[in-house]
Amino acid sequence: MGRWPPATRAWPTTIPRRSGPRWKNWPALAGPSPPSCVLRICEAGPKSAHYALFCMPAPSAITFIGLHYWAGSGRAFEAVAHLLAPDYPLLSPDLLGFGDAALTEANSYTVDACADALAAFITGQKVRRYVLVGHSMGGKIALALAARQPTGLAGVALLSPSPPTPEPMTDEDRMLSVKAYGKPAEAEKTFRTITARPLAPKLHQQIVQDNLRSSRAAWDAWLLHGSRENISGRMCDVQVPCMILAGDQDAIMSPSVHGLETLPLLPEGTPLEIISGAGHLLPYEAPEEVAALLRRFAARIETA
């Protein structure tokens, strides 16, 4: 079990930008930028988009696919994408009902429906070999897809994942979360609960905005159904290398939950890495540690 110290951020200052209907500019971050990189939104439909940092050419055969947390968006992986560039491209779709993803029927927000949409996205992007990086809710979706043993899947990295078993949450907390939908004060309260490390004001605002622009159907579907689904019986079909990352200050999903609910169901030898001082939002709070562990994971896969 690894233990990482809090890190100091060094993010890119400038990102080469391009105009056009399929591109959107994002604010510059601080630090040197990777060569020949552009952060863009590629539209997949009238209201559907995914966020990705593309660095060409990318010498690696592995593409990371980031799956965000409940009430988040693909923007959560922006800093991690910068830190993986230019060696590894990262695609981060807005999952059904969140971010700018197209709205769908209320009964289409099941874990399997999200896995179906993810599989279609991967096929559409013509990704040949990839690692799923599932954060929180995205972790359960990643495991659902991995159990299907799709062509091209090389590994699964889980960041503070929702377990394959029903998520440990009291009925009272579940209903309080349902009632919190669309309320700015509740979004701020959630931010304070799910983070442990200080974040820049712009990131704070982004996290709150993503919470407030979630669709009602997707919000309720995860709380009342998706988080309660039990897909543990499928985990014996997950046959690729896996790893779990967790923050030791996570007030939502403590490392012990992962050790009890998720780790025993994954392939033998799956590591549980602990990031010191981090809360639940690992891609925001600990992008350096996450990127470093993803690089190590990719190297392990490439040399296997």
UniProtKB/TrEMBL annotation:
Domain AB hydrolase-1 stretches: 73-292
Gene3D superfamilies listed in its UniProt record? alpha/beta hydrolase
Keywords per UniProt: Hydrolase
Coiled coil regions, renumbered to chain: none
Gene Ontology terms, MF aspect? hydrolase activity
Asked if the Swiss-Prot or TrEMBL record annotates the protein with the keyword Amino-acid biosynthesis, the reply is no
Query: Which superkingdom does the taxonomy of this entry point to?
Result: Bacteria
A GO cellular component annotation here is: membrane
User: Is Hydrolase tagged as a keyword?
Assistant: yes
Q: Name one Pfam family in it.
A: Abhydrolase_6
- TM segment ranges: none
Q: Which PANTHER family match?
A: AB HYDROLASE SUPERFAMILY PROTEIN YCLE (PTHR43798:SF31), MONOACYLGLYCEROL LIPASE (PTHR43798)
User: What is the protein name for this chain?
Assistant: Alpha/beta hydrolase
Q: Which organism is it from?
A: Hymenobacter perfusus
Q: What is the lineage of its organism?
A: Bacteria, Pseudomonadati, Bacteroidota, Cytophagia, Cytophagales
